[in-house]
Design brief:
mainly alpha, three-stranded parallel β-sheet, 10 helices, 3 strands, 55% helix, elongated
Length: 233
Amino acid sequence: LFTINALLKKADFDAYLAIDPSLWWQEEGIIRQFQKLNQKKSLKGQLYVSQSNNPFNPGITGNRLGRAVQSFKTAITNTKTEKLRKQFDFFEKDDHYSVPLISLYKGLQFVFEGYKFPLHKIQETAIIDLKIHYQKIANRFGGDLLPPGKLLNQVGQFLLNSENEIDKAIELFVFNGANYQNTAIPFNSLGNAYEQTGAIVLAIENYQKSLAINPDNERISIRLERLRRSIKK
């Protein structure tokens, strides 16, 4: 009820997750408020509403909670909501006590839909497409948003070590390093990739960048020293 009331009062939230809300409360009082809503300012943001099944009165409209949710859907459809992205889900196999977990999961999936770049396309995707993808997401959320560094590093490691897509892996690591210049991991990965290709000078350069950020990484220190000795030979 707090969530729906916050939406009704046009509170400054980006998204609202109402999990099996008791919209029947006070004879559907909050729904009546929606029906009287001032139309001068439209609702905006993202709204996710879940509804559980009642084991004693099953069905999407088999009980007062279900009927209230359906009334709310009607009320909000008739409200100025062109700036409000919304989704309603009915969970037939869940009751009021089991529905929160799946609602939170599905609700967050709805709110962050499209955030994760389709991994199966990375091999055939140019870096510019990654930038465009996350820029669109950032525009939707209304703030700065970088691609997830840990995810891209893991994908790069997979391409490097399992798929033998060395050039693509290096491209991802370089992109990651540009985004996260104060993080050692992209430069560790770049050093490793260049070392595998025999580009020892580039490997040394990136291991040095990594150690400048994290001087306590003994493993990288050892690899760097070994490469330096190999050059002297």
